[in-house]
Design a protein that fits this description.
The protein is α/β, with parallel strands linked by helices and about 260 residues long. It is about 20% helix and about 25% strand. The protein has one domain: L-arginine/glycine Amidinotransferase, Chain A (5-stranded Propeller), CATH 3.75.10. The structure holds citrulline (CIR).
Amino acid sequence: MSTRFTRALLRAPGENFAAGITTSAEGPPVLARALEQHRRYAAALESCGLRTTLLPADPRYPDGTFVEDTAIVTARGALITRPGAAARAGETEVIAAALSQHYPRLARIEPPGTLDGGDVCETDSGVLVGVTARTNEAGARQLAAWLADFGVRTTLVDIRAVPGLLHLKTGICYLGEGRLAVQATLPRLPALADYEIVEVGADEAYAANCIRVNERVLVAAGYPRFADALARLGYDLLPLEMSEFRKMDGGLSCLSLRF
Ligand code: CIR
């Protein structure tokens, strides 16, 4: 994978984390456990060589810990999104302030566009953008135009008809080496035809949201068949307990901006 990460931006889950948006029937998250899982997640990124910055929680934004949705950070520049859930709109401001210390210019998604970072999957050959209930076509096309200025090819993937997928990266993850982990429940999308697919079984679907960080792959703990498949391919895995974030429809990619 060509991107080498040196930094990550994170935001701690706050007292009212359980008041965020969720479709899960697993019950409310336990804050103390979420904080512990978040600490281990930050430590895992640090063990991959990243310097982490932890922003404080803001009670106005119970979903604020899912920082991935607020910005797109690439080797070429950074863009502030316009999250598709109205309750999350204001989350971008503290992220913009933090990223402006590293990027002199920040692009922005403008109305009527909406875009969640969870819908943006960067690969070595381009960027896949999910069109979902959160990311509309106008937002996806604004991102594509911004990336085109850097010579990056963007492919829109309309997954609005696929049940149970909040974001594109709920169902896929770029592993590097031309490979994508893909939930078995996802139809064979033409946009994915050029990649080698590592299928994630329907009963382990949550595990598809994993992240490649430099030499390692962070995976959710408790999904043994997917972990075996990755280990057989030679990946060095870092399993992390994610139970409390899963209860709020979040996964490994959502908890940081890596750059
Ligand atoms: C939400 O519904 O917006 C949050 N509860 C979960 C966001 C997860 N983010 C992500 O997958 N990138």
